[in-house]
């Protein structure tokens, strides 16, 4: 029998190794798998390369992972937001690397990683500092930059409901990077608000087919990052 | 350069209305963070415009009532929003397909600087120590989407934001179509910047004084 | 107000011009927009380049369009099936061009066309006759072929339900190429079994966002190609 | 070459069972058209295998009862199928993402010819006037998916199908992992073809006589 369900966030992240490349879903707090990230902090893996759109807020979730000096390098499109203090400070002190990638290029590099496409051309960033050092090429009179794919050892994402095959559906704009990050990881690890029986998810409405998912853990009542930040909570508590 | 703050020209709300009237019925529009968001409040009667937010929603509606916020329903500026009937959600790769593939018709952005050839700088001041953050800005300007810039005509210290060459790092080259400021509406054409409309009480010369490159008038 | 609904298949295809590049959804009969194709036959446009996985069956739908000599060139992955007689005969007589593309490469070329990606690299077809004359390149020690995007002037597809914004959902494996063909066409034309009110389609389950669709026509009771073929029907009747 | 048809070796059903026992629990499997489809009927007790059909279904189930067919629920061979609980549908680009991205574990295909280095020819005989048709075959073999070939050991006229070099146009180079014939199960290794199992009453020499390249035995 196929059963991708695991008992706890700790078990879900147990195999993440030092130096791993880890994609983390979420756009701001929407879709951020906060319980998986906290389990990863507890687990202790370090020298991670993390791919995520942002760098977290306050001192919880991704920001806490960074604060604990587990992240060697961030690959993201927007490393600062209203409440991000941890990353900016480490970055300004030269204590963390940053690869800044335009958001659509980041998404397409991740999707291509899952799709077996090693490189593609895009018009995005041509003529800007972010295209410096990159190969360019003309097609039909327009200039494009060649971008390489990104793959990860692990992805950590959050969803609304999952079944034991790993089929996933999401909630609203919390979907964002999760489906493509599941595709691009060797091992995609999912926290689901609810685990349902096979057949309960409408086969026409499954967003992430289970083939892209390795482990699912139910977190029925996930923390809300913005509330934790407002209360100035710090993980671990 | 003109450093004295003056009380003439359009209000921010007027500027947003000027943009809104240039958006045809049925357009798919992406609104940048900040001043561009105000445009949604000025769609003329009888027009239906569909707003795209690059974090995965087509059919973005207004701010929710207090207490009705869903932390998982936000816009690209990470503010709480709603979804209209006929909206749909999708993932980030599909979302940027709409942008890079030129399916979005119009994008309204803020700017640090716009050059006389339509180069845009709106993502980094290049200041040493600043944390660079680009988001989706470069994707939005890379295709053939019409780019409307909404911005005050000059900086807080009175420096022109419409310049011969951008001194800040570029978001994209030759990308801006029209600039909507508190003083004028300016079309970026192959052969230069054309003032299409002036704010009440503002003269062409007044705008020119606050603009680095030579402006043109439609004849 | 936005209203993409048109009154008839004839109105929907009225703008298709001689020499147009037309993508046609369907994998075998599943998803084939047969009423739109028949309307296109009536409309008369010729010298078409048609992109579709197959070449139709019997003497209805796509096979009938080909039989009426409206198609100059087919781009497809599998131009023959059990009941395809029209294309093979014309092809063997040198009366129609064929560009044969591996199915996954065809899908990705169409998707990239909709996504603003002018070219990408794929491992598919390396070392085979279908890679001859194509640029190859090594990434990380493996050889890939560069493939160019495909776009179309028009796409014709079939779906289960649509609303006036052009949001679409499909039925089972009739989905196949339709979503990416809608993305890759200047004008995507859809026949829907049902047109519903705005808000009736679950926003989490919309497969084709309306932004990719230009025209929708309701065809409540579409013909079944296999039945027509079994009866040896010929269009026009 | 051996032209006399003989009644020894495995039946087609045995061959399908041989393939099925080599498919681990939890595998995602794509079955080619024809003989490969029989594999689904031989999954050993206690194993769960999920079938992918490249026209957009993961979780393909058995043939529907007569009268229950849906012309819009078919497999890659355009035959009516069903969907199991836990199945899902997707479009063609996503479907080939599963293939090209190596998410599918195993693909079972038929063959015209397999070479001693694992080259596969199964899409075209290259005959003049034949209509070339490739479908998804080249995509399926292009990645790192395990490729199992199920095929009679020789052609109807007794020619070897396992050859030194394929004379038919290739589907892919060095792609086949294991060959399941009516006479033997043969692993394709870096250094040659290893006979792993012989059909009852079939000798190594008997298989070798019907195979162009030199076969090896596991020591």
Characterise the protein shown here.
The complex is a heterotetramer, with two copies of chain A (237 residues) and two copies of chain B (219 residues). Chain A starts with 8 loop residues before the first helix and ends in a 7-residue tail after the last helix. In chain A, strand 1, helix 2 and strand 2 form a beta-alpha-beta unit. Chain A is built from seven helices and eleven strands. With 237 residues, chain A is an alpha/beta fold. The mean pLDDT of chain A is 97. With 219 residues, chain B is of the alpha/beta class. Helices cover 14% and strands 26% of the residues of chain B. Chain B contains four helices and 13 strands. In chain B, the strands form two sheets. Chain B has a ten-stranded mixed beta sheet with strand order 4-3-2-1-5-8-10-11-12-13. Chain B is globular and about 50 Å long. In chain B, 53% of the residues are buried. The mean pLDDT of chain B is 94. At the A-D interface, helix 5 of A face strand 4 and helix 2 of D.
SSE blueprint and pairings:
The complex is a heterotetramer, with two copies of chain A (237 residues) and two copies of chain B (219 residues).
Chain A: H1 9-12, E1 21-24, H2 34-43, E2 48-51, H3 61-67, E3 71-76, H4 86-92, E4 97-100, H5 103-115, E5 119-122, E6 136-139, E7 142-148, E8 152-162, E9 168-169, H6 178-184, E10 185-195, E11 215-218, H7 225-230
Parallel strand pairs in A: 1-2, 1-8, 2-3, 3-4, 8-10, 10-11
Antiparallel strand pairs in A: 5-7, 6-7, 8-9
Chain B: H1 12-21, E1 28-31, E2 50-53, E3 57-61, E4 82-89, H2 92-100, E5 106-109, E6 113-115, E7 120-121, H3 137-142, E8 146-150, E9 162-163, E10 178-180, E11 184-189, E12 192-198, H4 204-209, E13 215-217
Parallel strand pairs in B: 1-2, 1-5, 5-8, 6-9, 8-10, 12-13
Antiparallel strand pairs in B: 2-3, 3-4, 6-7, 10-11, 11-12
């Amino acid at each position: 029998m196929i059963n991708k369900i695991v008992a706890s966030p700790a078990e879900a992240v147990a195999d993440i190794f030092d130096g791993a490349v880890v994609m983390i879903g979420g756009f701001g707090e929407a879709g951020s798998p906060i319980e998986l990230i906290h389990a990863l902090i507890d687990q202790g893996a370090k020298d991670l390369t993390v791919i995520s759109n942002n760098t977290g807020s306050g001192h919880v979730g991704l920001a806490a992972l960074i604060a604990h000096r587990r992240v060697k390098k961030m690959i993201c499109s927007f490393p600062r937001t209203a409440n991000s203090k941890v990353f900016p400070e480490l970055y300004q002190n030269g204590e963390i690397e940053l690869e800044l990638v335009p958001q659509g290029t980041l998404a397409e590099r991740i999707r291509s990683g899952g799709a077996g496409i090693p490189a593609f051309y895009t018009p995005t960033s041509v003529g800007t500092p972010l295209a410096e050092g990159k190969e360019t090429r003309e097609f039909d009179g327009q200039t494009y930059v060649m971008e390489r794919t990104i793959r990860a050892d692990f992805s950590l994402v959050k969803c609304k409901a999952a079944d034991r095959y790993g089929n996933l559906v999401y909630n609203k704009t919390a979907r964002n990077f999760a489906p493509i990050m599941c595709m691009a990881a060797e091992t995609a690890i999912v926290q689901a608000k609810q685990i349902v029986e096979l057949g309960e998810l409408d086969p026409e409405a499954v967003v992430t087919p289970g083939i892209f998912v390795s482990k699912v853990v139910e977190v029925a009542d996930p923390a809300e990052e913005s509330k934790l930040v407002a209360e100035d909570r710090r993980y671990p508590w | 350069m003109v450093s004295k703050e003056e009380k003439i020209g359009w209000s921010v709300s007027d500027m947003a209305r000027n943009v809104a009237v240039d958006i045809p019925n049925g357009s798919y529009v992406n609104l940048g963070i900040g001043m561009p968001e105000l445009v949604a409040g000025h769609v003329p009667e009888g027009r239906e415009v569909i707003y795209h937010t690059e974090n995965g929603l087509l059919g973005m509606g207004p701010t929710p009532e207090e207490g009705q916020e869903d932390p998982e329903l936000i816009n690209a500026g990470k503010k709480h929003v709603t979804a209209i009937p006929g909206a749909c959600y999708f993932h980030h790769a599909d979302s940027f397909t709409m942008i890079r593939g030129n399916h979005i018709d119009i994008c309204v952005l803020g700017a640090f600087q716009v050059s006389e050839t339509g180069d845009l700088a709106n993502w980094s001041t290049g200041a040493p120590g600043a944390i660079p953050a680009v988001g989706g800005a470069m994707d939005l300007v890379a295709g053939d989407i019409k780019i409307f810039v909404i911005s005050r005509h000059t900086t807080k210290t009175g420096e022109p934001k419409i310049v011969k060459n951008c001194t800040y790092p570029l978001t994209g080259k030759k990308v801006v179509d029209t600039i909507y400021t508190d003083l004028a509406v300016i079309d970026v054409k192959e052969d230069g910047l054309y003032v299409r409309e002036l704010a009440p009480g503002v003269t062409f010369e007044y705008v020119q004084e606050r603009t680095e490159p030579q402006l043109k008038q439609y004849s």
